[in-house]
Design a protein that fits this description.
Blueprint lengths: L2 E3 L1 H9 L4 H7 L2 E4 H9 L5 H8 L3 E4 L4 H10 L4 H13 L3 E3 L3 H9 L4 E2 L1 H10 L6 H10 L6 H10 L6
Parallel strand pairs: 1-4, 2-3, 4-5
């Protein structure tokens, strides 16, 4: 299975101690050089930077063509990492793009990519017995200042038969 990821899911999962969940679910994760730059270089000194930089199962690919990024950016107000992730997903014919931002998810889907965000990753991990206390992890997301709608978290908990936050 070929899986690409944007920056925010890597950062979010690292902040709640579940970056390795990606390896457990998918083996390898592919990221664009732009994503690596955002997480590892610009994020130097933050938890995700060290974890992502040391993860040999996260494969970094060359930067996207500036022309391709500019073409997408002309019609979609997204960051370079998100655009590069979508372009990499198309190039690799990925099975899944891990993207949290709603507009980026829509663009990825319009480009033929299946999408999942952090909540879907954590929920899948819970269903497979890899995340024991999903409710606690969602509380950690909120406590760490991760911008996510509490309603989405409660829907996920309800789908798993767990009490709301």
């Amino acid at each position: 299975m070929i899986v690409v990821s944007n920056s925010s899911p890597l950062i979010t999962l690292a902040r709640v101690g579940h970056l390795d969940l990606l390896r457990e679910l998918f083996a390898d994760i592919h990221i664009a050089a732009e994503v690596h730059h955002e997480v590892v270089e610009r994020g130097a000194g933050k938890p995700a930077a060290d974890l992502v930089g040391a993860a040999d199962w996260i494969k970094t690919h060359p930067a996207a063509s500036a022309d391709e990024v500019a073409t997408l950016r002309a019609s979609h107000a997204l960051g370079t990492g998100e655009l590069a992730t979508i372009l990499l997903g198309r190039k690799l014919k990925s099975d899944l793009a891990i993207v949290d931002e709603r507009s980026a998810r829509r663009l990825a889907q319009a480009n033929g990519l299946a999408v999942m965000g952090c909540v879907g990753i954590l929920e899948t991990g819970h269903r497979r017995g890899l995340v024991e206390d999903l409710r606690h992890v969602y509380q950690q997301l909120l406590a760490n200042g991760i911008r996510i709608d509490e309603g989405i978290l409660n829907e996920s908990l309800a789908d798993c038969g767990l009490p709301p936050l």
